[in-house]
Write a structure and sequence with these properties.
The chain is α/β, with parallel strands linked by helices. It has two domains: 83 residues, no CATH class; 96 residues, Arc Repressor Mutant, subunit A (Orthogonal Bundle), CATH 1.10.10.10. Strand 1, helix 1 and strand 2 form a beta-alpha-beta unit. The radius of gyration is 19 Å and the shape is elongated. The two termini are 28 Å apart. The relative contact order is 0.13.
């Protein structure tokens, strides 16, 4: 599953490196690769030759001698970041919670009663985030960033709209959901069987 946006952090000891990559990632020159905003969790960290990997968040793409990649051109750097993000954002595998079973590779959700429900790509990514939280709250901002690649704090009803549609598909009583629960600042999977 391909993210819509790849937020990147930069680690560099040389201010010129930081400035150069900041300009590229904020100037729209790198396509879906953008600089992570303040308070935003980066999906990939670009470790420049002047720095070391310590403190890298998410997946590290290392430039320079001894690094994982030694790209010479901007296009190569962007391609390395995209490859790392694609590999790290895969939501493959099966997940279970309270009798529900999510098969991401088959885009299928099984209810506790064994009913098979077909899902869209976005529904799979959304549910994978909720399943991975193990019943704990996932904030609206985390869902916007992880599922859609949006910056935190964006004023949109994307999450609410998709949750509404998902509940129509999977809940016995969508008006009183028992599985995809609303929390104070996001959503979580319910403890009871719907």
């Amino acid at each position: 599953m391909i993210p819509n946006r790849i937020p990147v952090a930069i680690i560099a000891s040389d201010p010129a490196e930081t400035a150069a990559y900041t300009d590229v990632f904020t100037g729209g020159l790198a396509g879906m690769v953008t600089l992570a905003g303040e308070g935003e969790k980066p999906l990939v960290t670009l470790v420049c030759p002047s720095a070391n990997r310590a403190g890298a968040e998410g997946i590290a793409v290392i430039l320079g001698e001894g690094g994982l990649d030694t790209p010479a051109r901007l296009a190569d750097i962007v391609a390395a970041i995209e490859r790392a993000a694609m590999a790290g954002s895969a939501v493959g595998g099966e997940r279970t919670h309270e009798g529900w079973r999510l098969q991401t590779d088959k885009m299928t959700l099984y209810t506790p009663e064994g009913v098979k429900l077909a899902l869209t790509d976005t529904e799979v990514r959304l549910l994978a985030c909720l399943f991975d939280a193990g019943g704990e709250e996932v904030t609206r901002n985390d869902l916007l960033q992880t599922v859609w690649g949006y910056r935190p704090g964006l004023d949109t009803h994307t999450v609410e709209t998709h949750i509404y549609r998902l509940r129509q598909k999977i809940e016995h009583d969508p008006a009183n959901p028992a599985f995809v629960m609303t929390t104070e600042s996001g959503y979580r999977l319910g403890d009871s069987v719907a």
